[in-house]
Amino acid sequence: MATLVFVSICTLINVFKALPADERRQPHTEIVKEYYTQRSHAPGTLLISEGIVIAPKAGGLPHFPGIWSQEMITAWERPGLLIANTYSPYQVTDSIHAKGSFIFCQLFGQGRSADPKVLAAEDSSFPYVSASAIPLSTRPSDVPRPLSVDEIHEYTQLFVQASLNAIEAGFDGVEIHGANGYLLDQFTQDVSNHRTDEYGGSIENRARFPLEVVDAVVKVCILESSLTRNNGLDMTMTDPVPTFTYFANEIKRRHPHFAYLHAVEPRVAGTAFRDEDEIKPQEENDFLRKIWAPKPFISAGHTRASGIEAADEKGDLVAFGRQFISNVSCCLHVCFLLSIRMIGEPSIFHVNIPMHRL
Ligand SMILES: Cc1cc2nc3c(=O)[nH]c(=O)nc-3n(C[C@H](O)[C@H](O)[C@H](O)COP(=O)(O)O)c2cc1C
């Protein structure tokens, strides 16, 4: 029965953008722990963390958590560690494991989605970068500097170190965020990558940096995954299918034990559902399912009905993001046909307001 399969794979994708980290980019410990633990109640739930920044200079928006220092690792990890003669109360990953559930760490760099003012305020030496000098349409005067080839190689190593840190912090695997207009996506898609070197131009060249990150992370992590999605921040290529076909095929060819591929259904844009008749055929994810089969394919952006259908008819692992934010026992709500409360922005975005109201 599809519903039973569906229960075991209910997944939290992300949480709350503004709250997870303090000024030092450490998770807001007790609240974050409580939030994740609440959502791991159904044993076997796989949680995917919010995007966690790989290195200080790869950030550039307030309150995104990071995972580059021992303090941060400890904050995600286990209780009872003696730090500066006090016992750390932090225990996010252990608390999830105690419920019989799992959590992957989603890793990313912001590239041009950063705010250069925030970067400069953190450290005046942090450059505002991307694949090419192409600004976001919403901030045309903020023009990013293209990463040099040496910097690209350095970023790959930052992903590797962040992955090692995530495993040390008790995460069960890492998810490389290759979508939504963040740094790796800025290289993959032709709308943001006009480079003329080996990291731009052809599909193979545009996919080179994300694939190098995948290759390097796979060497150090037993479990890892990737996510390939087409939306967000000026990123909609005219025809994403050839590029993402190559990308998915390469990951499958190079890494037969890759944990999963994760994509968002085109019915969602940002936090809203789109009209079905707005969706163009090239936005559909079926080509990815076909390439990836029979390996695990996670899809997000579902209603209850479409989630059950995707699990039943396409064999997807179905992820819930917004509904899991606003329904602590989302799995139960989906499976036992309980009403599902949708998120309202006032209930998730307020900085410094305790999360208990969720
Ligand atoms: C408040 C909020 C924050 C999000 N943050 C992230 C993120 O950090 N990383 C990510 O991959 N997706 C993020 N997303 C997108 C969701 O993970 C999910 O893909 C999207 O909401 C569609 O799935 P859903 O219909 O189940 O919510 C966020 C969504 C919301 C509403």
What topology does this entry show?
Layout: H1 2-8, E1 11-13, H2 29-38, E2 46-53, H3 70-76, E3 82-83, E4 86-87, H4 92-98, E5 102-108, H5 116-122, E6 129-130, E7 145-146, H6 149-168, E8 173-177, H7 183-188, H8 203-206, H9 208-220, E9 224-227, H10 240-254, E10 260-264, E11 268-269, E12 272-273, H11 286-292, E13 297-300, H12 304-314, E14 317-320, H13 322-326, H14 330-335
Bound molecules: flavin mononucleotide.
The site of flavin mononucleotide (FMN) has 20 residues, from β2 and α13.
Protein architecture, described:
With 358 residues, the chain is of the alpha/beta class. It has one domain (2-357): TIM Barrel. Helix content is 35%, strand content 15%. It contains 14 helices and 14 strands. The strands form 4 sheets. Strands 1-2-5-8-9-10-13-14 form an 8-stranded parallel β-barrel, surrounded by 4 helices. α2 packs parallel to α4 (92-98), α6 packs parallel to α9 (208-220) and α10 runs parallel beside α11. The longest helix has 20 residues, at 149-168. 45% of the residues are buried. The structure holds flavin mononucleotide.
In short:
By secondary structure, this protein is an alpha/beta fold.
Widest β-sheet, arrangement of strands: 1-2-5-8-9-10-13-14
Mean pLDDT: 80
Using the coordinates above, name the CATH class: Alpha Beta
**The number of domains:** 1
Overall, the morphology is globular
CATH architecture: Alpha-Beta Barrel
Indicate the radius of gyration in whole angstroms: 19 Å
Number of strands: 14
Report on the biggest sheet.
Answer: 8 strands, parallel, barrel
Strand content: 5-15%
